[in-house]
Structures are given as C-alpha cells and as structure tokens.
Specification:
about 160 residues; elongated; mainly alpha
C-alpha cells in the first residue's frame, strides 16, 4: 500500500488496502488453526478471522460490549472495502479507470487500517498463547513429557 500511495495510484491504493485486510485475516485464521482455501470468499475469510479474534483475551484487551460493537462495525467497514475495490480499484480488470475521489481513497484506507489495527492487537495475544496451545495439543495426543519453559508457564507444565 505504501508503494501505491507513493506513486499516487488510487486504484492500486484501494486494491492494496483490500489485500492487506485479507492477508491479516488469513494470518489470524491460520494462527487459530483454520486454513481458508485459496479461493475462499473475502467475506468468509474476514468473518473467520473476526470469530477467531473476537473473544481473544490479553493484557490491554477489553471485552466491553460497546467496544465489541465498534469492532463489529469495523468488520462491516472492512467488508465494504472489497466492493469498492471491485468497482473502482484493481479488481476485475477494466478498459478504463473510473474517476476516484480523494475521499474514497482516504475512507478505504482508513477503514482497512481500522480493521487491521484491531486484528493485529488481538493477533499478538493469540500468537503469544500459541506455545501453550501447542503443548496442550501435544499432551492431548500422548506427549506428556512436553513442557513450557517460558517464565509465564513455570509451574503450569
């Protein structure tokens, strides 16, 4: 997206915003153990990631209902990014570039970044919990000798 912005290519900026959202969403789902097929619908990928991250606990993470409502609205905004990308951005090649208002580019980028920032904040905690989740899975499958030596795991292994 940085390159697209630096060369002032509005369709490329809009397309890059959508790609950024999808990349972060696929990463969040994968960390949670859900791999969406490469041809999965954008909404499916975003919804899967949102479910994986929605109730994620962690330091500095809130479960306040009003904040969760904001996150839900951010998801709706992010889902709209794809439609703008299809109509004005790099999606579905076209013979001519439509006129794109600066406001459109600004709102698409802001909307994409709102969703991505929310996801990355929660994704950090999901990734940090990954060793404990892996250990629990290994133990479940009969590898009881596996222990976690991280300071926060001492005494829990």
């Amino acid at each position: 997206m940085v390159t697209a912005i630096s060369i002032n290519d509005a369709p490329f900026v809009i397309g890059s915003a959508k790609e950024l959202v999808e990349c972060v969403a696929r990463t969040a789902a994968a960390v949670k153990g859900v791999v969406n097929p490469s041809n999965a619908d954008f909404a499916e990928v975003v919804n899967t990631a949102h479910i994986a991250l929605d109730r994620q606990a962690g330091k500095g993470i809130t479960q306040a209902s009003d904040v969760r409502a904001i996150a839900q609205h951010a998801k709706k905004i992010v889902l709209s990014v794809k439609n703008v990308r299809n109509d004005f951005g790099t999606g579905h090649g076209r013979a001519e570039v439509k006129s794109i208002a600066d406001e459109m580019v600004s709102l698409v980028v802001a909307g994409a970044l709102l969703g991505v920032r929310w996801a990355l904040t929660r994704l950090e905690h999901l990734i940090l919990d990954a060793p404990e989740n892996l250990i629990a899975e290994l133990r479940r499958w009969g590898h009881a000798a596996i222990t976690c030596r991280a300071p926060r795991c001492i005494g829990t292994a």
